[in-house]
Design brief:
Peroxidase, domain 2; binds 2-acetamido-2-deoxy-beta-D-glucopyranose; peroxidase; two-stranded antiparallel sheet; about 325 residues; Peroxidase, domain 1; oxidoreductase; mainly alpha; binds protoporphyrin IX containing FE; globular; Cationic peroxidase 1; about 0% strand; 14 helices
Length: about 325
């Protein structure tokens, strides 16, 4: 090899190292983690996810959100799946999750099927969440990516951290940027990952103030949403986060340009601030959106995983062994 190509190789290796997420231990995760111990793991997860989405399209959205809410609290450690006990401070009833996070039965089903396929519990609940999120996006027409694997499951949960660390739909752009920054995610990650709102629904009480009181909203859109979200009732009535709730497209972003963002935090990404340009480019460039979304999902999945001797592989995702 000539010295030129050698130095080229060196710069590639250095680039690879430099782009490895800063989060500790993330380099010990690998897409091939279960290759030896359970070669059927990924196909089994995919089958159960696809079945669940066939029965209810919204389930893909719910599973994607579960992984996000897991990773923002103590890292991607399946802490969100633990039920309340005398020693577990369950995250399920934290403000962002209570009567909102869903898909727990599907995760149980996946765990059961995967453990059966492997012959013993070798696949962590945290990895199941990460793979189910990817498979959901793919099933609804979005991009794919190699999911890093080898996370272990927590033996604790934190309702208070779920309350403080999961972003609120009332946040403005600087708060959203700060919230993501606290998890090692940058402004581009924030905008790309918010594209997760290309899928699924929100309840009336989280966007009521926006559709009745805010001015950076399309009036026809506001009236339309008001018709199914009364001023003082119908708290849990659902509205679509974008016009195509079961297709992973760019309508979420083009809607923001038309002031048709459903959540205050959605419209904050296109409200005259520094992220307007990214929203604009994603709205017309699905490949750029998909590429950045996939990249940011890998970064999300690398937040503080438990590896090595830390944590455990739960037998039941709802409880500590
Ligand atoms: C940027 C800050 C974010 C805020 C403030 C936020 C807030 C919310 C809120 C309030 C809802 C509606 C919940 C309900 O009414 O029950 C929701 C739904 C959803 N979020 Fe986010 N979210 C954010 C980022 C993300 C990210 C990064 C993802 C995934 C990559 C995501 C995926 C989803 C999905 C798929 C739904 C629909 C869930 C369903 O229909 O079951 N969100 N989000
Ligand atoms: C969660 O929602 C239930 C209603 O389903 C309510 O009774 C309970 O107080 C809520 N929990 C918390 C911690 O807010
Ligand atoms: C609109 O804003 C006012 C003043 O902040 C508040 O009292 C009222 O509850 C808001 N209305 C809705 C429907 O959120």
């Amino acid at each position: 090899m000539g010295s030129h190509s050698f130095s080229l190789l060196v710069s590639f290796v250095m680039l690879a190292l430099a782009t490895t997420p800063a989060t500790a231990f993330s380099s010990t995760l690998s897409p091939y983690y279960y290759y030896q111990t359970c070669p059927q793991a990924l196909t089994t997860i995919k089958r159960v996810v696809e079945d669940a989405i066939r029965q209810e399209h919204r389930m893909g959205a719910s599973l994607l959100r579960l992984h996000f809410h897991d990773c923002f609290v103590q890292g991607c450690d399946a802490s969100i799946l633990l039920d309340q006990t005398s020693t577990i401070d369950s995250e399920k009833t934290a403000r962002p999750n209570n009567n909102s996070a869903r898909g727990f039965e599907v995760i149980d089903k996946i765990k059961l099927e995967v453990d059966k396929a492997c012959g013993r519990p070798v696949v962590s609940c945290a990895d199941i969440l990460a793979v189910a999120a990817r498979d959901s996006v793919v099933a609804l027409g979005g991009p794919t990516w190699m999911v890093q694997l080898g996370r272990r499951d927590s033996t604790t949960a934190s309702q208070s951290e779920a309350n403080t660390d999961i972003p609120s739909p009332l946040m403005d752009l600087p708060q959203l940027i700060e919230n993501f920054k606290n998890k090692g995610l940058d402004t581009k990650d924030l905008v790309a990952l918010s594209g997760g709102h290309s899928l699924g629904f929100a309840q009336c009480f989280v966007f009521r103030n926006r559709i009745y009181n805010e001015s950076n909203i399309d009036p026809t859109f506001a009236r339309d949403r008001q018709s199914t979200c009364p001023k003082s009732s119908g708290n849990s009535n659902l509205a679509p986060l974008d016009p195509t709730t079961a297709i992973f497209d760019t309508k979420y972003f083009s809607n923001l340009e038309k002031k048709k963002g459903l959540l205050h935090s959605d419209q904050a990404l296109y409200n005259g601030g520094e992220t307007d340009g990214l929203v604009k480019s994603y709205s017309t460039d699905i490949w750029a959106f998909w590429k950045d979304f996939a990249k940011s999902m890998i970064k999300l999945g690398n937040i503080e995983p438990l590896t090595g001797e830390n944590g455990q592989i739960r037998s039941n995702c709802r409880m500590v062994n």
